[in-house]
Each structure stands twice: as C-alpha cells, then as structure tokens.
Specification:
The protein contains four helices and five strands. The protein has a five-stranded parallel beta sheet, sandwiched between helices.
Length: 110
C-alpha cells in the first residue's frame, strides 16, 4: 500500500537539488516560497500553514525552537555537509521519515 504524498519545505541550508529525489512528495524550497532569511521561529509559523514537513540540516533547531508547538514535522539531516553528495546516502531514511513524521515532532536522520 502506497503512502500519500506530503508537502515538504526544504530549508535554505539544504541543497535545493535534493527536491528531485523526494518523489512523489510535493517539495518546495524556502527560497522558492520567498522566505529566504527568515529566522527559524517565524519560518516554522509560516511553514506550518502550508506544509506538512520542514527538512533542514540545522542541528541547533531542536534546541532553539519548541517543535511540539508547531503543526508540522521537522526532519534534521545529519551528514558531514549540506552538499548533495553527502545528503543522498540518507535518502532511504529520509523518505521513511517523511512518510511517518507526525506534526509537532522532530526526527533526526543520520
């Protein structure tokens, strides 16, 4: 049984080309949404209105924001850098996390 596509926002610190590898999900970037430079708290408030999930490589987000207060899931990618070649090995775990992360929760994919 296939899982429904989810609406995913890639943080500006994530290589935008990762979106190509997240099919069948609906993916956009912070830059495409016109939200470049917006700080995490405000970004989460804006994102929760239109997206199911925020994907970031910002490991400090969990310490700076109470993710439980927002109606979207947050996935933190833990790789040696935010470059696409370093992120691609995380794809199987990332796709599983996208399918299962609940609103108000944070998942670390390493």
């Amino acid at each position: 049984m296939s899982r429904p596509a989810r609406s995913v926002l890639l943080d500006e610190c994530v290589d935008w080309r990762l979106a190509r590898h997240l099919q069948p999900h609906h993916v956009t970037t912070v830059a495409k949404a016109g939200w470049s430079g917006i700080q995490n708290g405000r970004l989460l408030r804006q994102a929760e209105v239109a997206f199911d999930i925020l994907v970031t490589v910002d490991r400090n987000l969990a310490f700076q924001q109470r993710v439980i207060d927002f109606h979207l899931g947050v996935i933190v990618l833990k790789a040696s850098s935010n470059r696409l070649p370093d992120l691609l090995p995380l794809m199987p775990q990332l796709l599983e996390a996208i399918a299962t992360v609940a609103p108000g929760s944070l998942v670390v994919v390493a």
